[in-house]
Give the backbone structure.
Amino acid sequence: MDYMARALHLAARALGRSSPNPAVGAVLVKDGRVVGEGSTQPPGQAHAEVVALTQAGLEAHGATMYVTLEPCPHHGRTPPCVDAIVAAGVADVQIATIDPSPWVSGAGRAALARAGVRTTVGLFETEARRLNEGYIHWVERGRPLVTALWAMSLGGLVAGPPQKGLGVAARTEWERLRSRADRVSDGLAAFPSDEHSLLSLGKIGVTSLLVECSPADLPLVLAADVLDKVVIFLTPHLGGAPLARPTDPFASIVPLHRLEFERLGDDLMVVGYTRACSPAS
């Protein structure tokens, strides 16, 4: 078993229910056996490290911990994870990536080192940053990561509601994206289309916002200049419903960066970022 990959899988389970805390996964390994594992619980409850330590009990002594984000050294809603790790006698902590928040930012690793716990950083770092891109964006910009999501036919027309226009695999992925977002905006009616509104959401701990829209809405979303990421599902059809209103295809042209393509059954999912530097970079 790849223990850090397992920790990332556990971390993904916490997406959409851990904010404003990051979604973290932790795995404790001793003598080649997993003795404890866990993911971040809702705010005010145990962090991933503590869940894993509790499961491991005395077996945590001398074990290696694989954790997707640097353990916290501060007292927030819960006591510091660093203190729990040291008290349990964990010998080595493998950290995927440093927590960029000003209340951690290397201090957790430093505290572990002072206590004699060996630390290593960088295993699966890109994947760990991508998983917590909403949290990182919130930390760095004070507002949620805004992602636009829509489906369309290959002919450029609206593919209809996801349950009608997409295949099973694509519908499953659509629902997964919805479940991992802190907040979902159905169309533009509830879309906070300015930086001030997004900063207000950030202040209450919303780190990721998913906007379900149509290609016809895109010019309005782009005009607000708050879009960070897009996820587009392309269906293998040439038909579809006409756009709700005419649009000028050259009114707003925004290049996408770090493009990814994934086939889901007969559908194609395209992911891209509107800015060259994204939280996962």
